[in-house]
Amino acid sequence: MDYEHAAETPVRILMRDATLGTAEMSEAVINSVASDVSAGLDKQFNGGPRDAFRLRMSNIGRPKCQLWFEKNMPYVKEDLPEQFMMNMMLGDIVEAVFKGILSAAGVKFQDNTNVTLDLGGGRKPIKGEYDLLLGDRIDDIKSASDYSYKNKFVDLETLQADDPFGYVAQLVGYATAAGKKVGGWWVVNKNNGHHKYVSAKDVDVDAVLDKIRETYDYLENDEPFERMFTDVPETYRKKPSGNRILCRQCNFCSFKSACWPEYKELPSRTYQGKLTPPNVAYTQINDKQSKYMGSSHPRKKQKMPKLKEENANG
Fold first, then answer.
1. What is the mean pLDDT of residues 297-313?
2. CA dihedral 41, 44, 45, 51 (to 10 degrees)
3. How confident is the model at residue 313 (pLDDT cuts 50, 70, 90)?
4. Does 143 reside within a domain?
């Protein structure tokens, strides 16, 4: 369902006027944006080693199996790519600039505030910091790739169906902790500068909070490892190729090598273009030239094998 936020009109007017050279941004707003960018750079470059695992509003919505690894086997995590830091900085810059645009457009909002979510039942509180309070609703600002902008940040239903980063739980947690209504996401396309508002006002808050509590209990009670996803059939022109590959959620996970030791990054077996074929995360290849690479049968629960002593300590 399309949703037009009241703040979108003044933002569009400001951006149109800026292209005509008739817009204004006060020195106070410019200084605020510069200060936010400076704080982001300081955090990314001078923040030191990242904290040991703890549940935070920013990770509580991620898949349980990924969080299990974060807590119990962090030493098998894949190294983050170099571009990770650039993406983090771009996110900070987009948030700072977009808030400056909102201010220059005359949109009133309350800036970042730390909040604490009480899940009840003797559970430890979960802390986080929301992006902005606009009216009586909590909103988040996200920078997105062109693919995510077009295919993921479509509406609440689409995002909930494919949410490996836990954006829905994060937003619901912020709003509940602040005692406010759930707003939505201001999404900026990093490829072309387009922006839009995706509303989450119809989210089932109670269902999301129940899922957060389930994740909390799973991790705090030291439950055995449970893989949440299975591999999926590879398709070419909507027809199965006979091979199986990691699903999108697993592809985004930094623990896929430990969780799927059989998988291999190989050039696509279905690519028909003239360029270098893209790599695909195969779990099984079904042809005469390739040997069997792993089970195609989903397993609901799986205990992780004990690692050798030298691996566990090093």
1. 43
2. 150
3. very low
4. yes
* Same domain (yes/no): 216, 241: no
DSSP 294: S
Among candidate residues 77, 81, 83, 63, the one with its CA nearest the CA of residue 256:
77
Report helix, strand or coil for 149.
helix
Q: Structural domain of residue 259, as residue ranges?
A: 232-298
Residue 255's H or E segment, with its range, is none
CA-to-CA distance for 241 and 55, rounded, in angstroms? 40
In a domain, 225, yes or no: no
Looking at the chain, the whole-number percentage of residues with pLDDT higher than 90 is 78
Confidence of residue 212 (pLDDT cuts 50, 70, 90): very high
Following CA atoms 41, 47, 51, 54 in sequence, which dihedral angle do they give, to the nearest 10 degrees?
A: -40
CA distances in angstroms from 122 to 23, 102, 172, 220, 231, listed in the order given: 53, 40, 20, 12, 37
User: Which two three-digit tokens encode residue 251?
Assistant: 């592809």
Average pLDDT (181-210) is: 97
51/109 Cα distance (integer angstroms): 30
Please tell me the total count of domains within the chain: 2
